[in-house]
Amino acid sequence: MSKASNASRAVGYDALVKQYKLRVVSHWHHSEAGSSIHRSRTENGTVWEIYPSALAPDETLGAQLEFAIKYDGINLEILSALFERIDPKELTTYIQATPTGRYSRRIWYLYELLTGHTLPLADVTSGNYVDLLEPDRYYTASPIQVRRQRVNDNLLGDARFCPMIRRTDSLKAFEAKNLPETCREVLASYPQSVLKRAMSYLYTKETKSSFEIESVAIDASRTERFVSLLVLAEKKDFFNKADLIDLQHRIVDERFRDHDYRHTQNYVGESIGMGRQQVHFVSPKPEDLPTLMEGMYEAHRRMHGDGGRGGGGGALRASPGRGGRCFFFFAPLSRPTRPPLPPPFPQLFS
After folding, report:
1. Which spans in the chain are helix H?
2. Which residue in 124, 158, 169, 237 is a FRET match for 323, CA 20 to 30 A apart?
3. pLDDT in tens, 123-140
């Protein structure tokens, strides 16, 4: 933590990222140790903390990992990148020293989950199950008991796709407002006939806006089909491969219908004239889509199960894992209105 005093040193994730030269997005929480007192400051959602020297871990992999999980939280991106770089024997030695420890069991489970590799360790046969995520720090799904490490996997997804949503003060305040109940009370004060007319207007307006965004010609038949699907979406869960492809077939021209995920590179951009495109975002590679989408469906099922433990249903329903922004950025189906990806972007995936 560059903001800290010269006497302190980076610990936790910051130390591991530096030591193993990991190319990852910066974590939201940065830790250092070496101060005589505990100090903390927050700036634009990022937290810097300096811990007393007594809490400083030693320089070993296990000690730094345990500190990171305990104080920095769980960052799946950093852990996934780290586990690809470390010597599994070093991690095995750390776990063998405390095989029933709450942090060693969680690190052990995360290693096997994220890498798909099994460490040469015997299953834990005694002790209480420990939650992988602390429900007071994160929004969680219903726990899946993992007998090998005696861990409750309460992640919102799996190794293929897993949103992480912290219980920040802002989200706690959002939950406290209980907006679903307020909406129900407001709607109950209007006659059903008025609500139906309002919904019909909004469905039609949304349809026209969607067509304009995609530069699709508007006609009465296509508008009617799209509106009927919007109405149906309120009653049925379409979030699976077969139904998504079927939905596309009902909406797009027969020439552009897909029978599988797209096989070409997609992107989000805009035309800047002379046949050129300004690219704002490049979607995942076609070959990565099957795994990503299956992971996304699983995350959807986990979050749909009970809305999350601890009353987090509202926040979970607004999360990307439920088919919103992440689905848009994945762009799993073809978009015929887009020209081919211009150079030099294809080189990004060579």
Report:
1. 13-20, 61-67, 76-83, 88-97, 102-115, 169-176, 179-188, 192-213, 220-233, 241-251, 289-306, 313-317, 325-330
2. 169
3. 999 999 999 999 999 999
